[in-house]
Amino acid sequence: MTKRHLRNPFSRLSTPELPTVGPGDTALVTGATSGIGQATATALVNAGFRVIGTSRDPGSLNSVANTPEGVTLVPLDLSDPASIDRLPGELEKVRAGTVSVLVNNAGESQNGPLEELPHDAMTRLFQINVIGQVEVTQKILPAMRDQGRGRIVFVGSMLGSFPLAHRGSYGASKAAVKAFGFSARRELRPFGIGVSVMEPGAIDTGISQRRTIYVDRNGPYADEFATMLKNLNANEAEGISAGIVADEIMEAVTDPRPKPLYAVGSSAGVAFPASRLLPRDAMHGIIAKRHGI
C-alpha cells in the first residue's frame, strides 16, 4: 500500500515568498544619525543599497558628524505634521526615486507614572512614535505599491509586548506601532510588500541620556520610579549593541519570507516562549523584578 501524502493544514497560513529587494534599491531610514537608525543605515550601505537618512536638523554639527558614510540626509521632524508633508519634496530634491525599503526607526523614549504624565507629553509621544511613523509610511506606499515590491520595518520595543511600570506611555506607543505593522502586513502582501516589526530589548545606545522623564520627585511614586530608572539605565548600559539589532532588521529586509516579528536582546529567545506558558501577572512580575521593583 502506498503512503498517502499528508497535507499540512496550516500551509496556506505560512508566509508566502515575496519579491526581493537588494543592491541598487533605495532605502529610507528615519533617525539615521544615532543608535539603531545609524547602525541600520550603515548596514544597508554595506549591502549595496542607496540610503537616505532623516534628521530633524541635517545641517547641524551633530548630524553631520554622526551621518554614516554613504548616507544622504534629508530633514524630517516627526513631531511636526508639516515636516512630514514636506518629506516627498525633500526626497525629490535628492532624486531618491522609489523607496523600496522603509525603516521607521525615529522615536522618543518617555518615562513616568500614569497619574503624572502630562497631556501634552503623551500627545507628542504618540505623534512621534505612532502617528508620525504611520504618516511617513503613507507618503512612501503609493510608489512602493506601484513597483510591486518593498519592505517596511517598524522599530518597536519589547515593552510593546511586556509592559513595565512607569513606562506605560512608551510601551503603549510601541504596542500601537506593532498593531499597525501586523495589520498592514496583510493589507500590503498582495502588492509584494513585506511588513515586519522589530522589538529590541535593552540596547546600549546612550538613550538613557535622551529620554524624557515626567515624575514628581517628591510625590508618591518617586522612590519606586527612581529604582526603576536606575536599573533601566544599568540594563541598557549592559545591553546589546545597535549593530546586533541592525543585523536583525537586515534579515527582515533581505528575507523573501520576512517574519512578522523580530526580537533580540533582554533574553528575547526565552521571554516570548515563556509568555505563552506563564500567567500574565507572573510574566509582568519577572519584568518588574528585572528592574528592581
Automatic annotation (TrEMBL):
One of the record's GO molecular function terms? oxidoreductase activity
What keywords is this UniProt entry annotated with?
Answer: Oxidoreductase
Pfam families the UniProt entry points to: adh_short
Q: Where is this region: Disordered?
A: 1-22
Q: SMART domains, alphabetically?
A: PKS_KR
Location of the Ketoreductase domain: 25-206
Which InterPro entries would you find in this protein's record?
Answer: KR_dom, NAD(P)-bd_dom_sf, Sc_DH/Rdtase_CS, SDR_fam
Tell me yes or no: is Oxidoreductase among this UniProt entry's keywords.
yes
Family that this chain belongs to: Belongs to the short-chain dehydrogenases/reductases (SDR) family.
Identify this protein by name.
Putative short-chain dehydrogenase/reductase
Which species?
Answer: Corynebacterium variabile
